[in-house]
């Protein structure tokens, strides 16, 4: 159970990063708890949040939840905390607790500054960039999806299915849902064939023979790989013929399925 608790702490640290929101949240809950005119809010905000915190940090319940949703996404449990509502309610009541307008204005400024300064400025080049297209997805994903779709129409391939590197997976699904994919954007657990295929195509050096065999077993008519890998001849030996390059990716078609 000690390892489970350590995992919870790790998710807590990653979720709140270097912000002071946990401290503000605790202050807000204390203000609500000791506010004489907030009986309903004490139960709705203090009671519910304390219950969720107990569930989140208790190693026993954390272990059960991790088994159900997987450890990778346990941080989503912190969505259960009504942090914004608690902060808003507590600070508004704190501000209105002052009778003088100057004190109200000062407390509003201080409360706002505390919220703003507790986090980090996110509108930077590291988190935002100029959109490359109206779909707001990588352009190379659009090129790959359109190439597969066009080829499928020309060759009469119904319900084309492709196996692509994880970097393209979710974007192709957004752009053209008619192109079926071998796995979703987060292949953690799945069928044996899917898991092996995922591991092979996303490895640094995919093996052509194994990749072709697994792709065919998963009923994939297309394989998409970075063009820099130069697997044209090796895949051609296993009947996956290169049809084009798009956005830095090579697209291969299973000629045996024609």
Provide a count of the helices: 11
Low-confidence residue ranges: none
Query: How are helices and strands ordered from N to C?
Result: HHHHHHHEHEHHEHEE
Helix content: 55-70%
Structural class: alpha/beta
Shape descriptor reads elongated
Q: Report the mean per-residue pLDDT as an integer.
A: 89
Report how far the terminal alpha carbons are from each other: 55 Å
Features:
alpha/beta
Summarize the topology:
Elements: H1 2-16, H2 21-33, H3 39-57, H4 59-69, H5 83-96, H6 101-118, H7 139-155, E1 161-163, H8 166-175, E2 180-181, H9 192-201, H10 208-217, E3 222-226, H11 232-236, E4 240-246, E5 249-254
Parallel strand pairs: 1-2, 1-3
Antiparallel strand pairs: 3-5, 4-5
Please give a structural write-up:
55% of the residues lie in helices and 9% in strands. It is an alpha/beta fold. Helix 2 crosses helix 3 (39-57), helix 2 crosses helix 5 (83-96) and helix 9 packs antiparallel against helix 10. The radius of gyration is 26 Å and the shape is elongated. The N and C termini lie far apart (55 Å). The relative contact order is 0.09.
Short characterization:
With 258 residues, the chain is of the alpha/beta class. It is built from eleven helices and five strands.
């Amino acid at each position: 159970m000690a390892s489970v608790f350590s995992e919870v702490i790790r998710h807590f640290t990653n979720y709140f990063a270097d912000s002071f929101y946990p401290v503000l949240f605790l202050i807000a809950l204390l203000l609500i708890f000791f506010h004489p005119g907030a009986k309903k809010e004490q139960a709705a905000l203090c009671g519910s949040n304390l219950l969720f915190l107990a569930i989140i940090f208790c190693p026993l319940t954390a272990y059960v939840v991790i088994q159900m949703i997987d450890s990778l996404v346990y941080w989503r449990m912190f969505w259960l905390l009504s942090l914004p509502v608690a902060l808003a309610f507590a600070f508004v009541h704190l501000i209105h607790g002052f009778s003088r307008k100057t004190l109200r204005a000062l407390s509003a400024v201080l409360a706002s500054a505390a919220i703003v300064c507790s986090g980090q400025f996110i509108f930077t080049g590291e988190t935002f960039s100029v959109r490359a297209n109206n779909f707001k997805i990588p352009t190379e994903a659009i090129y790959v999806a359109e190439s597969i779709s066009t080829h499928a129409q020309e060759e009469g391939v119904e319900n084309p299915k492709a196996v692509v590197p994880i970097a393209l997976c979710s974007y192709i699904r957004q752009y053209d849902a008619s192109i079926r994919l071998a796995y979703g954007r987060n292949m953690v657990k799945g069928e044996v064939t899917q898991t092996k295929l995922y591991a092979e195509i996303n490895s640094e050096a995919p093996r052509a023979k194994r990749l072709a065999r697994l792709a065919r077993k998963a009923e994939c008519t297309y394989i998409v790989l970075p063009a820099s890998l130069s697997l044209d001849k090796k895949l051609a030996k296993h009947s996956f013929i290169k049809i084009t390059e798009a956005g830095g990716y090579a697209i291969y078609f299973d000629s045996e399925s024609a």
